[in-house]
Amino acid sequence: MKAIVLAGGYATRLRPISYTLPKLLFPVLGKPMIYWTLDLLRHHGIDEVVLAVNYLADSLRAKVGEEYRGMRIHYSLEDRPLGTGGPLKLASQTIRLKDTFIAMNGDVIAEIDLTQMLERHESAKAAVTDALHEVHDPTRFGVVQLDSNLKISRFVEKPSLKEAPSRLVNAGIYMIEPSVLRMIPAGRRVSLEREIFPVLAKRQRLIGFPFEGHWFDIGSLSDFQKANLVLLQKQGLKSILRQGRRRLVGDSRLMTPFFLGQHSTVERTARVGPNVVIGNNCRVESGARVTNSILFDRVAVGKGAIVSGAIIASNVSIGKRAKIEPGTVISPNVQISDGVKIRRNVMVHPHKEITTNVATGIHLM
């Protein structure tokens, strides 16, 4: 089988980090989101994938390349955003889609049996089978109503809570027949959820596949934090033990749950955890403390510094005795001088050098 992964979008709710880093390279437990997607597809036998790209496409392509663990990777570049349906039409010009194929949103991390989903799709003779997940608040998503045969009888995009027909939402993972591509106009923005799925539902050709494994739709910084924390609590310790070389020096204190990436160092008397994800090639120096935070790759935390409740992107240097308070987001390529205090809910844009204290709620652009 072949798969199309929707990897475009401007990731506006992940700013300021997403100004220079594509959403699908945001790390979850030290692994970029796109690799969670590709690993899922590979596990279920997919050997050829098209990434439908737009914003910061060159960065994504430079990271992923043309091959991943035996899978061939192609790229379909939109010169302007085409929604959720338009990219499928455009990608069909890159590879031939003559059989059932998978399409999925690249910012979704899910524990789902795609093989079982395909079997359900084939047995129902569906045009599209839509993976469904139950959520507490369905108002952010496409919401469905299922009949007794798991056919989707209604599909309502982002309803109010009162109008939602259920709490089962579109999980952004689909089995699709090639005939559906003929329903998608070429050269313009098309929404599967608003233009295609309601038509298929009326024709009884849209099938639901509810699943109960974990599911994260990472559209915002709070979604990103939640995905890291939940997966950390589920598998963090095992992930640490499976990592390659890592260096814990002397009497450093690590409090679970925590994740420590490859080639990262926690020095003597440093304290890390609980609820901390540290990426690859990071250094936490002696006397520093990191709690309830996510550090991307190549982050240096200086001696005696305190990082609490923050997101720190790649290539950030935090000086000695600096203090980063909860809610703060530090973008890539930022230097923070010794002794600087960054108060709560500060947003620091990329490529900054901070030499003085920063008050609560400031955007450093």
CATH topology of the largest domain: Spore Coat Polysaccharide Biosynthesis Protein SpsA, Chain A
Q: At the first level of CATH, what is the class of the largest domain?
A: Alpha Beta
How far apart the termini lie comes to: 45 Å
Strand count, sense and barrel status of the largest sheet are:
8 strands, mixed
- Structural class category: alpha/beta
**In percent terms, what proportion of residues is strand?**
25-35%
Number of domains: 2
Give the total of beta strands: 34
Structure description:
- The structure is a single chain.
- This protein is an alpha/beta fold and 365 residues long.
- The protein has 2 domains: 2-217, Spore Coat Polysaccharide Biosynthesis Protein SpsA, Chain A (Alpha-Beta Complex); 221-364, Hexapeptide repeat proteins (UDP N-Acetylglucosamine Acyltransferase, domain 1, 3 Solenoid).
- It contains 6 helices and 34 strands.
- It has an 8-stranded mixed beta sheet. A 7-stranded parallel beta sheet has the order 15-18-21-24-27-30-33, with no helix packed on it.
- Strand 10 and strand 11 (152-157) form a beta hairpin.
- It is elongated and about 65 Å long.
- The mean pLDDT is 90.
Describe the structure concisely for a colleague.
The protein has 365 residues and is an alpha/beta fold. The chain folds into two domains: 216 residues, Alpha-Beta Complex (Spore Coat Polysaccharide Biosynthesis Protein SpsA, Chain A); 144 residues, Hexapeptide repeat proteins (UDP N-Acetylglucosamine Acyltransferase, domain 1, 3 Solenoid), CATH 2.160.10.
